[in-house]
Amino acid sequence: MLTITSDPFGVLLKQFRKRQRITQNQLAEAMRVHRNTVGRWEEGTFLPASKALLVDLARCLHLDESEARQLLDASLLTPTPLWSVPYPRNPFFTGREDLLETLQARLAPGQPVALTQSYALHGLGGIGKTQLALEYAYRYAVAYRAVFWIGAETVEQIHASLLHIAERLELPEHSEADQQRLMMAVQRWLETNKEWLLIWDNLEDLDLLRRYLPSIQTGTVLITTRSQTLGTVAQGINLAPMEKEEGALFLLRRAKFFASDARCEQLHHLVGCMSADYAAALDLVTALGGLPLALDQAGAYIEETKCGFTEFLALFQRYPLQLLQERGTHGEHPTSVVKTFVLSFEKLQQTQKASAELLIACCFLAPEEIPETLFTDHAIWFPPGLQQMITEPLAFHRMLKNLLAYALVHRNPTNRTLSVHRLVQAVLKAQLSDEQQQEWLVRLVNLLVQAFPQDVNAVETWPWCEQVLPHALHCLEQVETSGYAETEALCLLLIRVAAYLYERAQYTRAEELYQRALVLQTQEQDSQKIPSILIATLTGLADLKQQQGLYPEAEMFYQHALSFLDQVPSPDSSQQVTVLRGLSNIYFRQGRYQEVEPLYQQVLSLRKQLFGPDHPLVAASLGNLAMLYTTLSRYKEAEPLLQRAISIQERIHGKNHLKLATLLNNLAILHFYQGRYLEAEMLFQRAILIREKIQLPEHPDLASPLVNLAELYAKQRRQKEAEALYLRACAILEQVNTEHPELGYTLLGLGDLYVDAGKYQEAEALYQRVSDIWKQTNAENPDMMAYLLYSQAHLLLHRGRYTEAENVCQRTVAVWRQHLGPDHANVARALQLLGRIWQAQNRCEQAEQAIREALAIRLALLEVTHPDVADIYNTLAEIFTAQGKDELAESMYQQASRNSWRGSFSQREESPRSWRVSDASST
Q1: Residue 124 three-state SS
Q2: Cα–Cα distance for residue pair 786/744, rounded to 1 Å
Q3: Residue 238 phi, psi dihedral angles, 5° rounding
């Protein structure tokens, strides 16, 4: 290429630029060329490579018609770069700035890698490889002495391109018919000249590059290809779909909503003034998978029909394939998205049938991160030919190689997953008949049933479940609209996925799947074909309702499942255990303790028969039985059961397993009641840490140990710490159900904390909310209502409303005596509060009688050194002092001082409403 020292074009350009008061960098940015380009134009070193660039210059410099002509005429007086590119610059090219900079850094003359290395842009058809290469050629043309373009899809195209290059170079051989001589002439020119850029567009057969390139490479080669396997031919740069904002800007520009030179700043402005269009454009980018060809197609359609983004999005949701077949009248890409993918698939299908079938299987799964082991470990569900190829590692790799060659899948070698663009999935599925689609759905539903773990309670299965979950949900979504007929496999998949979602606290989605399974089985004419699946469905729904605090509904589902068990001639013992376990837990939460113990004992006995005495499920049953004994103040019976259960779980699962967290929480509760506060605190914290590490930080199972630890802190007058825990537990439970019964216990504990702090109005409002929750959900549970009465009496005492406090407290004593028995710890607590109410009224004899009765119950349950026993002795001492019985008072004070409590903290009046224990067993 010729260079000159002075050039009228450069002088003229500089004058026009300075008139506009813009810098060379600003003009380069507006022109979308390299920052040094304008300087080299003005120096006269280079000229714009095409008339399109001259037109852009005139527009950016705001030249009138005569000035634009003057600039064009000046350019004709100077030799221009050698240029053989058959396409004009795309005025709508958007983004990809990082890739352009990467290419410039690696390919520009003077870069060491550019002298010896070719680069290839590879990726899916329609991903924008050609447009990126074209933009690079225009933007960085000034860096090269010559820029040539070879259409490389066929040998015929290559020969035609070489002829154009020979003509542009004015080689003598350009007029000869001998193609070999023509090729050699072009090769000689490339060998004897430097700083050229040669673009090979749509090169699929990489061997052609070796055939046509000179042996000595003195310039730069840029390739566009679908193949990800480049060998030693070139270094690869993979093109990914457009990001949302980048894609939205391109779509807005292509649809002529913005000028072709619009920048991201104008896109941000659209958020405020055209929020609906902006949102629809973003949604379209997502729906079209950020594929530039699809975005271009959509923009052309919107431009020509003036339908707008919102309307096009609605149309695309109804007629996706029809719109993907549309091609704009004046588009730069004559081939539609559908045709692009279909042609690639047909080529694959003609030579590699098994690879094509593997791709079809991928089309029925979620597009991203498809585990290869889904195929290799479950090949039995595929057609025989494909099955054989999948199970042979080398054959499986050959299939992947074929798919990668057409860029129809992307493989992540690190985690061994495949990805398929969503539009590829949509287009290729549409090529199948309804019958073929049904066949593939049947295969994949059965495959996913086999792949999805049956025991989703095992934490160890969760990482795999998380990998398979999006594919199962995607498959189930397709089944819902396809009239799928195989009920049994479908129901199995529904309940397994639902069970996992339940474990991860995604209750709404879990219920939707359970209900789908239930409807399918109800519609099944012969439901006896799959009784175990129906029972599992009902039990899953019951567990879900129980976790949401909807106890009557949960009991209904458990009873329904139990009735089906009775109808089965030889019921599954494990299912029987699951139903009875759930039903017993419902009874426990409803305060029906007399019905609970025989059921817990029955479940424990059945589990021992099924699994042996040292199985984790046996440990869970021991923990549940201990939970009941703790609630009934049978502490000496509870502790050995809990210790044995913890020992079993730690031996099998270690010291930090999720199954251990509930047992630790329940042992901590027992220690709290026993006055072993330091041990209780450590166990609560350990249970919380285990759950936080394994489950989500807002998982409902965290609420129980949080509330329990809050109650311990409240008893120790650590109000700020207690309040923070109560509020966190409230937030967790409110996400599940704003009327959850367990939320009532939490609010009650928080209310008591406010009473101790003198915040009586806040406490009263919380108690009213608790009353509303429990009246609506658990009116039949007297135990719950007694907790509320106790707290209300406590508040009335603090507010000096003694008569009301006395009446409410006497009701509390009566309820607990009748429901829990006369010797229960809660009766002692209520009597102690009643004694304090009478003490405040100077009714000392009645107060003494109530306190002594509470003391007798406490001493029967607790060690004499328990802090609560000391608290009663102190209360008696105060009563005797008020009566002038100083010797008796001194004796009570001495009794109090002999226990282990030394008044290291000021105790609050204990109100144990929040001491609810979570279920230790697995479903």
Answers
A1: coil
A2: 12
A3: -80, 135
Distance, CA of 824 to CA of 860 (rounded, Å): 10
Element (H, E) at 221: strand 220-225
Q: What is the pLDDT of residue 270?
A: 60
State how far the alpha carbon of 443 is from the alpha carbons of 423, 556, 749, in Å: 22, 35, 53
Residues 149, 42: Cα–Cα separation, whole Å: 27
12 neighbors 71 (Cβ within 8 angstroms): yes
* 3-state secondary structure (DSSP) of residue 238: strand
Task: Kindly list the distances between the CA atom of residue 773 and the CA atoms of 624, 650, 685, 740, 785, in Å, as whole numbers in the listed order.
Answer: 26, 38, 29, 7, 11
Q: How many CA atoms lie within 13 A of 708 on its CB side?
A: 30
What's the pLDDT band for 474 if we cut at 50, 70, 90? very high
Q: Tell me the one-letter amino acid at 438.
A: Q
List, in sequence order, every residue forming a beta bridge with 199; answer none if it has no partner: 149, 222
CB atoms within 10 A of CB 886: 11
Tell me which of 641 and 257 has the higher pLDDT. Answer: 641
pLDDT, residue 830, reads 94
N-to-C CA span, the chain: 79
DSSP result, 328-353: -TT-S--S-HHHHHHHHHHHHHHH-H
> Over the chain, what is the mean pLDDT?
85
Q: How many angstroms from the chain centroid is the CA of residue 736?
A: 18
Task: Assess contact for 198 and 222: CB atoms under 8 A.
Answer: yes
* Sign of the torsion angle spanned by Cα atoms 312, 315, 320, 321: negative
CATH number of 1-80: 1.10.260.40
Cα–Cα distances (Å) from 420 to 242, 338, 647, 879, in that order, read 15, 15, 48, 80
Residues 220 and 516: their CA atoms lie apart, in Å, by 60
Task: Please report, as a single letter, which amino acid is at residue 818.
Answer: Q
Task: Choose which CATH entry (3.40.1160.10, 3.40.50.300, 2.30.29.30, 3.90.950.20) describes domain 92-240.
Answer: 3.40.50.300
Confidence band of 741 (pLDDT split at 50, 70, 90): confident
What one-letter code names the amino acid at 879?
Answer: I
Please name the residue that has the structure tokens 């006269």: 44
The string of DSSP letters for 379-430 reads GGGS-HHHHHHHHSHHHHHHHHHHHHHTTSSEEETTTTEEE--HHHHHHHHH
The CATH fold assigned to 614-689 is 1.25.40
Token digits for 775? 């009246």
Which residue is associated with the tokens 């702090």?
A: 757
Q: Do domains 335-432 and 696-914 have the same CATH topology?
A: no
Q: Please give the DSSP secondary-structure letter assigned to residue 524.
A: -
Fold for the domain defined by 335-432: Arc Repressor Mutant, subunit A (1.10.10)
Range 851-877 burial, b when 16+ CB lie within 10 A, else e: bebbbebbeebbeeebbbbbbbbbbbb
CA angle 104, 110, 111 (to 5 degrees): 55
d(CA 859, CA 632): 16
Model's pTM, two decimal places? Answer: 0.77
H or E segment and range at residue 72: helix 65-76
Instruction: State the Cα–Cα distance between residues 399 and 396, nearest whole angstrom.
Output: 5
Residue 728 near residue 710 (C-beta atoms within 8 A) = no
Question: What average pLDDT does this structure show over 696-719?
Answer: 90
> What distance in Å separates the CA atoms of residue 577 and residue 449, rounded to the nearest whole number?
23
- CATH value of 696-914 in 1.20.1250.20, 3.50.50.60, 3.40.50.300, 1.25.40.10: 1.25.40.10
Note the pLDDT of residue 600.
94
Q: How far apart are CA 707 and CA 733, in angstroms?
A: 11
* pLDDT(279) > 90: no
Bridge partners of residue 201, in order along the sequence: 151
**Higher model confidence: residue 440 or residue 95?**
440
Residue 728 CA to residue 711 CA, distance in Å, equals 13
Domain ranges of the chain: 1-80, 92-240, 244-334, 335-432, 614-689, 696-914
Q: Is the pLDDT of residue 546 over 80?
A: yes
